[in-house]
Amino acid sequence: MAVDVHGPIDFLLLEFPGDRLTGDTARALMDLVERGVIRVYDLVVIEMGPDGSVRLLDLARPEAKELGVFAEFAGARSGLLGDEDVREASAALRPGTVAALVVYENTWAVPFVAAARASGGEVVASARIPATDVMDALEALEATA
């Protein structure tokens, strides 16, 4: 029986000040999808009110147009992201913010994963270093050079 090969699946929670979830971020995400770098499985936009109330924004509603290209991800719900995941993500947000919670597959890695599997390779450890940590470390190295 053939097994479908997939790339690693990641999730990303991007928090923005309440009025700053712009089309620029969504356009960059859509570019990655169109180029086949990633495949979006789930995308949920969460609004944390100033009073701490939580609301999921329905990307299919006409007023979602204010979110620009994010509205084009309406219906991106695979089932990988559950209600508990959304609750946990909401708990990480600050009042007065809006966030995009994205679950995506790194499709660029599929040929690599397939080749490794065909050779009997198995992942025994994996980690992700957040981009901000890398940028901070590089800045610190530059400052000492």
What does this structure look like?
This is DUF6325 family protein. It comes from Actinomadura fibrosa. It is a single chain. The chain is of the alpha+beta class and 145 residues long. The chain has a domain of 100 residues. It contains four helices and four strands, in the order E-H-E-E-H-E-H-H. Strands 1-4-2-3 form a four-stranded antiparallel β-sheet, covered by helices on one side. Strand 2 and strand 3 form a beta hairpin. 15% of the residues are buried. The mean pLDDT is 89.
Please count the beta strands (DSSP E, at least 2 residues each): 4
- Biggest sheet architecture: 4 strands, antiparallel
Question: What count of helical segments does DSSP give?
Answer: 4
Low-pLDDT residue spans: none
Determine the N-to-C terminus distance: 55 Å
The oligomeric state of the chains shown is: single chain
Into which percentage range does the β-strand content fall? 15-25%
Query: What's the arrangement of strands in the largest beta sheet?
Result: 1-4-2-3
Give the class from helix and strand content and strand pairing. alpha+beta
The radius of gyration is 18 Å
- Overall shape: globular
Order of helices and strands: EHEEHEHH
